[in-house]
Amino acid sequence: MSAVPDFEFxxxxxxxxxxxxxxxxxxxxxxxxTVVVRSSVTGRAVEFxxxxxxxxxxxxxxxxxxxxA
Length: 69
Known about the structure:
Layout: E1 9-11, E2 25-28, E3 34-39, E4 45-49, H1 50-61
Antiparallel strand pairs: 1-2, 2-3, 3-4
């Protein structure tokens, strides 16, 4: 049986985390080939391959996921 990796999560410096509204997204990239994203509120996580994450970031940088104000 293989050990479950210990993910080291970090939060974006753009996140305005505070005790009144603790909603932030945390990302772990310390396990080779894997990126895990989780909610700081629920702790639920979603796992991506490094390629999937790179594709998502490319689209985000191009504004493909921007929310209309």
